[in-house]
Amino acid sequence: MSSDPPGFELPLRLFLGFRVLIDELHAELARQGHPDMRPMHGFALQAIMRGGDTAVELGRTMGVSKQAAGKTIETLERLGYVERTVDPRDTRRKIVRLTARGADSLERSARIFDDLRRRWADEIGEERLRALEADLRKVTPPDVFRLDVPGWFGGQ
Amino acid sequence: MSSDPPGFELPLRLFLGFRVLIDELHAELARQGHPDMRPMHGFALQAIMRGGDTAVELGRTMGVSKQAAGKTIETLERLGYVERTVDPRDTRRKIVRLTARGADSLERSARIFDDLRRRWADEIGEERLRALEADLRKVTPPDVFRLDVPGWFGGQ
DNA sequence: CACGATAGACAACCTGATTGACTATATGGA
DNA sequence: TCCATATAGTCAATCAGGTTGTCTATCGTG
């Protein structure tokens, strides 16, 4: 009977797989006119689309402080991916909205991710890829957009 | 015929899987007497064991500058995970070595990772888990320790 | 023995996160 | 109606971890 692989390989492979996909996404995004996009920006834009329409909301969705979310929005605004307008019904709030450029980057990202998935399917087989996705769904939280992603690696 | 899942789910699931394992590792490490360990520390300690016995070497192994590696070593030294001695044959070099505490943290990590892997195997089946690992090996770089991990997310 | 390469340290700077404090605006209850 | 409290956004200080550039000490070789 063959022994199990060491447990430490699994997280590393998961991370490497993630990293490979994200790196290829951004290499291709750069080729398609979005050289300034960073991994975090895609997550933030997604979070903004799904109801994170103010700094506080975005912070809640991404699991960071409202100040950090505000800085991210500032960066995205400077890069031309979002714009802010005041909420006429509550002048404290500043509504964040994707610009055409922001929407374009998300559409291209979706297409590129589909292409990358197809390449993995070619490599390991569509059946195996579906199984891999189904298995990961079993061992990860259901809501894929509640990432709490930024800064959890290494920080404090 | 059923349509493919959207491509963007794959990287997110990979990341979430990674994150779940790392978070549980560190929760358990904290319970076992290593509350100060951060994800990066584990990688650095591993890299130090595998031939990264000076700042320059560690930097090369981890894909960061020697200055960044030096800062990491400083942190690990302050936390009591490594110690530095001068190389008697080359007084420029300062040899980094794991302390007993550093070695203990790696042994515990290995055991915890094995336990976590077993839990995944219970959940999705040993066969499926082996298939998942094998498939990921096909689509990721061979050397699992050359991560270039720090700072690639969001940087520039 | 002198010169080029290497190891480590120091400084300045960048990014992205945090907490704390402050201002302005809403909102709900006495 | 008015005041207390909660909320949105911003500013400032701080931290971690990364970068590049510079400097010194030491090594090793032609």
From TrEMBL, chains A, B:
<dbReference type="InterPro" id="IPR000835">
    <property type="entry name" value="HTH_MarR-typ"/>
</dbReference>
<dbReference type="InterPro" id="IPR036388">
    <property type="entry name" value="WH-like_DNA-bd_sf"/>
</dbReference>
<protein>
    <submittedName>
        <fullName>MarR family transcriptional regulator</fullName>
    </submittedName>
</protein>
<dbReference type="GO" id="GO:0003700">
    <property type="term" value="F:DNA-binding transcription factor activity"/>
</dbReference>
<dbReference type="GO" id="GO:0006950">
    <property type="term" value="P:response to stress"/>
</dbReference>
<dbReference type="InterPro" id="IPR036390">
    <property type="entry name" value="WH_DNA-bd_sf"/>
</dbReference>
<dbReference type="InterPro" id="IPR011991">
    <property type="entry name" value="ArsR-like_HTH"/>
</dbReference>
<dbReference type="InterPro" id="IPR039422">
    <property type="entry name" value="MarR/SlyA-like"/>
</dbReference>
<dbReference type="Pfam" id="PF12802">
    <property type="entry name" value="MarR_2"/>
</dbReference>
<feature type="domain" description="HTH marR-type">
    <location>
        <begin position="1"/>
        <end position="141"/>
    </location>
</feature>
